[in-house]
Amino acid sequence: MSPFDQLVDEAWPAPHRVEAEGWICRHAGGVTKRANSVLPLGERDDLRRAVDEAEGFYAGLGLPCVFSVGAQAPPDLDRELERRGYRRADPTLVMTAPLAEPAPGAVPDAEIHDSPSESWLRTWWQVDGGRHPDGGEVAAREWAERILGGVGAGYASAGAGMAVGRGVPQGDWLGIYCMAVDPGARRRGLGGSVLRALLAWGRERGASRAYLVVTMANAGARALYEGEGFGVAGNYHYRIAP
C-alpha cells in the first residue's frame, strides 16, 4: 500500500478536517486543492452514500466538492465521480529519491530556518498564491500560514530570498514542498541550490529518502527533479464537482 497519500496529508495539514470511516474532508479556506479536498483512504460500505456525505460537507461551507484520487482511493470511486459529472484535473506525479551522502566539502548554497521569513512567504506567495482565489488575499495568506505552521519544517532560501522551498521530516522520509523561484531569477540554478540544501538538511535529521509531488504539466520542475535523481513512484489526480 502506497504511503504517499498519508505523507502528503500529514505534511500539508488542513486546519479544518472531519474524518469518517477513513475518508477525510479537509478545509483551509480554499487555499490549495490539497487542503480543500476529500482524501478517500480505503473502501466504504456504501460508496454513493459516502460521496453524498462529502458533498454535503462542502455544500455546508459554500465550496465545491473536490476529491484527491490516489493509490488508496476505492477502485470504483473515479467511475462514480465521473458519472456525477466531476471533471478530472491536475494529474500529479509523486517522485522519490534516496538521500545520498553529500560530496566531501560540499556546502549547501542556501539558508534554512525553522520558520518562514516574510521574504520567504512573499516569494512563495508570488509564485503560488495567485491560484488561491476566494476570500481575499489577506484571508488566504492567513490560511496558508496556518497550513505551513501545522507541522515542523525547514524553510530554505537562496539568492537573497528569490528562491525558496520547504522540507518536512517524516521519519525515514523527507517531504519537499513549496519549491518556488521568482520569475525574474529563473535559470540561474537557484531552485537546484534550494533543493540540494533541503536534501542535505533532511539527511542530517535522519531521513534516508525524499519525496515530492509535481503536476505532470510542469515540465521545468520535473526536469529539475529528474536531474537531482528523482524518479516517478506514483501518481494521483483531482475530481472537481460540476
Task: Outline the low-pLDDT stretches.
Answer: none
Shape: globular
CATH class of the largest domain: Alpha Beta
Please give the radius of gyration in angstroms.
Answer: 18 Å
Question: How far from one another are the termini?
Answer: 31 Å
Count of individual beta strands: 11
CATH superfamily of the largest domain: Gcn5-related N-acetyltransferase (GNAT)
Portion in helices: 25-40%
Q: Largest beta sheet: what is the strand line-up?
A: 4-11-5-10-9-8-7-6
Order of helices and strands: HEEEHEHEEHHEEEHEHE
Number of helices: 7
Number of domains: 2
Please state the structural category: alpha+beta
Describe the structure.
The chain is of the alpha+beta class and 242 residues long. The protein folds into 2 domains: 87 residues, no CATH class; 140 residues, Gcn5-related N-acetyltransferase (GNAT) (Aminopeptidase), CATH 3.40.630.30. It has 7 helices and 11 strands. It has an 8-stranded mixed β-sheet, with helices on both faces. Helix 6 links the parallel strand 9 and strand 10. The two termini are 31 Å apart. The mean pLDDT is 93.
